[in-house]
Design brief:
single chain, about 450 residues, alpha+beta, 14 helices, globular
């Protein structure tokens, strides 16, 4: 089964589900100038590969219409070298080659000897978070939650009776603290994140169904010699080599003109969408869980999903989201992210959903979720006609990438500072990457960006 991916290893890529690259209908608004041409390798942003679908020269007045921006997918050789290299940091791990290991091996390494991958995938969160799951496990050592995951859904292909191509996306995330006395703790590792990705044509969590793809992250105790994060991918539990480490994710949402599925290899594709564009994945971050955005999307692209079904385990699950996001914000800060957009966004979520606050366990609408880096920065404001129309468009069409890559659309000052560039990308059909704007959508977006104050 092929499942589109996002969040931990791919929160989402600045990419596409579009099966072909077509010219959009002319806009009724006068298009602004396209972005400045990128004509030499030194000018290419390291996050992206930039190429021409037609094979033409990347220059000239129509350049914006002849480009595609994609996250670099990596390759099998680099993935193999990566796994061999990081294996040397996992002292006490029971398998000589990481590529030959399984989820079961990682559970044992972190001290969870009695837990099976099938139980991790299938048991309710309450059963997994209880004390005594393995010897020495206390309440809080394991955090588990399930949710509707709009980031991993194909939005580029037409829906059939309200069902996206490849189905609705759902996730189950588990975080295991390395137990005292475990080999992982002795090796300087603090946590193991495991993410199960599910797809279903039904607009509810597919209980009992196998996950299509499985991702993992190892988080170290900071201050030592480890990389900031380690990325892993595992075979599905019903695959030919169940729960075995694999080199890549297979995603269905990306790459203009490249078909329905593409392979994204560790670590390069993972690191790019986790905030790192440098060697050794320095500064890589775990991405926070935005329950509000999950619920927002039932009002636009995914209207068959009942908002009440988004947080699968209901209001009590907000305690788990608070614990996870608290840990994630701390991780972001530990790798140098304090004050940066991901940290600020996570802090805003924690502020809005503070325990015992009026909004602790419920959805907060977009116009209350804006955040700033500096006093006096622009902030999205209810009652502002432009803000009330533009922020929902950004939330629907741009958040998928720009909540984890380069900037966050809920930070109005940054959107305002980039408005001319963003208008150029949209007028040139470079963005949004996962679908094509029709003429009315493009005209409305460009006008709202022009009017943004």
């Amino acid at each position: 089964m092929r499942v589109p991916l996002g969040f931990l290893v791919l929160p989402f890529l600045i990419l596409t589900a579009c099966p072909k690259h077509e010219e959009a209908a002319p806009s009724t608004a006068a298009p602004p100038p396209a972005p400045a041409p990128v004509v030499n390798a030194d000018a290419v942003p390291r996050l992206f590969t930039i190429s021409s679908p037609s094979g033409g020269q990347l220059s000239g007045p129509n350049m914006a219409h002849d480009l595609k921006l994609t996250v670099r997918p990596g390759n099998p050789e680099d993935a193999d070298r990566y796994y061999n290299t990081i294996r040397t940091a996992l002292s006490g791990f029971p398998i000589a080659r990481l590529q030959d290991s399984t989820i079961t091996d990682m559970f044992g390494y972190f001290g969870y000897n009695r837990l099976s991958p099938v139980d991790a995938e299938q048991l309710d969160p309450a059963a997994l978070m209880k004390e005594g799951l393995s010897p020495g496990v206390k309440v809080g050592d394991v955090l588990v939650t399930r949710f509707f995951a709009p980031k991993i859904i194909n939005v580029g292909a037409p829906q059939v009776n309200g069902v996206p191509r490849f189905g609705f996306g759902w996730r189950k995330v588990l975080r295991f603290r390395a137990l005292d006395g475990s080999n992982a703790r002795r090796a300087g590792l603090d946590a193991f994140f495991l993410l199960f990705n599910f797809a279903s044509n039904d607009p509810v969590f597919p209980a009992g169904k196998r996950a299509g793809q499985i991702q993992g992250i190892l988080q170290p105790v900071y201050g030592g010699t480890h990389r900031d994060l380690y990325f892993l991918v595992y075979e599905a539990l019903d695959a030919a080599n169940p729960q075995r480490v694999r080199a890549f994710l297979e995603a269905s949402f990306d790459l203009v003109n490249a078909g329905d599925n593409s392979k994204y290899y560790v670590p390069i594709a993972c690191a790019q969408c986790h905030g790192s564009e440098v060697a050794n994945e320095k500064g890589a971050k775990v991405n926070y869980l935005d329950t509000d955005h999950f619920i927002d999307r039932t009002g636009d692209d995914f209207k068959k999903v009942n908002p009440a079904s988004v947080i699968v385990d209901g209001a009590p699950a907000y305690d788990t989201f608070r614990a996870l996001n608290t840990a994630i914000v701390a991780q972001n800060e530990a790798v140098g992210g304090k004050g940066k957009f991901a940290w600020l966004a996570g802090m805003k979520w924690l502020e809005l959903h503070a325990k015992n606050s009026p909004d602790a366990n419920r959805h907060v609408p977009p116009l209350r979720r804006g955040f700033v880096a500096n006093a006096g920065d622009k902030v999205w404001t209810a009652g502002n006609a432009v803000d009330e129309q533009l922020l929902p468009m950004l939330n629907q069409y741009c958040y998928r990438c720009h909540s984890s890559v380069r900037y966050h659309v809920f930070q109005k000052q940054v959107v305002f500072d980039r408005k001319d560039r963003l208008k150029g990308y949209v007028s040139g059909d470079l963005m949004p990457q996962d679908r094509k704007f029709d003429a009315a959508q493009k005209s409305k977006f460009l006008q709202l960006m022009t009017d943004l104050q």
